[in-house]
Each structure stands twice: as C-alpha cells, then as structure tokens.
Amino acid sequence: LSAKNYSQVFLLSCFLPVPPQIMNISSDITVNEGSSVTLLCLAIGRPEPTVTWRHLSVKEGQGFVSEDEYLEISDIKRDQSGEYECSALNDVAAPDVRKVKITVNYPPYISKAKNTGVSVGQKGILSCEASAVPMAEFQWFKEDTRLATGLDGVRIENKGRMSTLTFFNVSEKDYGNYTCVATNKLGNTNASITLYEISPSSAVAGPGAVIDGVNSASRALACLWLSGTLLAHFFIKF
What we know:
16 strands, eight-stranded mixed beta sheet, alpha+beta, five-stranded mixed beta sheet, 16% helix
C-alpha cells in the first residue's frame, strides 16, 4: 500500500464498529460483614460500551445495582453475598459478560432450637441449627460440663448447619437444661434447650400406631356384637 492508501485504511479502521470486550475485572473476594467493597469492570469497544453490574442472587427485576465501571458497596450485609455479573454492551454484538463472587463472612446465629419432651427409657433428640459463614462449629454442655459422643450414652452429630444431641435410653438424670454453642472465627452464640419428662400416656402416637387401651375396647365391642348376632340367628333358625 502507498502511504496515501495506508492512511485511508487506518482512518477507516478508526471508525469501524468493534464488539464490546471486558479487559479487566475484579477477582472473587471474601470480606467480613460491615466492610466496604469496590468491584471494577473495564471494557473496550466502538462505540464505547455501557457497563452494568447486576447482583444475580436477588429476585428478578431487583438485580441491577450499578450502571458504571465501578460497583461500590458500603457496610455490606450477608444477604449481599453471591455472584455479581458485569455486562458490557454497545449494540454491535452480543454483550460480553463476566462474573465475580462475593463471600460475606458473619458470626453465627441460632435459627432453630426447640425443647423436647420424652418418656423414661425412650430415645430423645435435641437439635440446634445455626447459620454462619464460615460454617459454625458446635459444642453441647449440661451446666458446666461439656458433652462428648460415647459418654453417658449420648451421641453428637454435626451436619452442615445442624447439630443433634441424641439420648438412646433416657433416664431421670438426663432431664434438664442443655446449652448448644455455635462458634466461628467471627464470634459465637448459644441457646438453652430443655429435655423434659412426659408420661408414656401423653406421648403422641405416630401414623399407623395403635394405643392398647383403645384397641382392647374395640375388640371387646366387636366380640359383643358378634355374640349377639350369632344368638339371634340361632333363635330364628330353631
């Protein structure tokens, strides 16, 4: 190409449309609740693309949080964790889309802890559920004594957000107040849960269960009805 033609091609290329392309974007980040967060998304294209940030973890229609290269969140809350999508659009081609994940750490809080009644000699289970990031670790206490699996006939199981304390054969000494403690690196919380005694007759029968007293009465009435029917049949026949 001559110098003149090269100049014409160069000038022409300066005005050609260019699809959007994200060149630089923040990495995934983990922060503590209450911190300030700034995400960056830089894009090129011709015309200059519009950059939009959207929180993917919220309800549809509520996700657009910023129309700028920078997304700033001050005093971040736990419900603001999740994936954030950066989209660069200039109508030349499909938008260029990238994602960043924000993990928000927060201390435990116990969301479910319920007192339980059980009869002597039966199986009893106390449960404790705690939300936390990172995941909480659990401990169980009776008064000032920490409990452990295998001691005094109890078993402790921790699965995700839930911890259970199981008594396989409840005795009188097992009744009382227990404390569930949930801990992570940001703090701890606890809840008091009571294992209390109920009489066998007040226990609720499960599906398909038969209470002996009712069953015996039913059998007696059935026998009485059957005897009367047979006797009437005998007198009619003879």
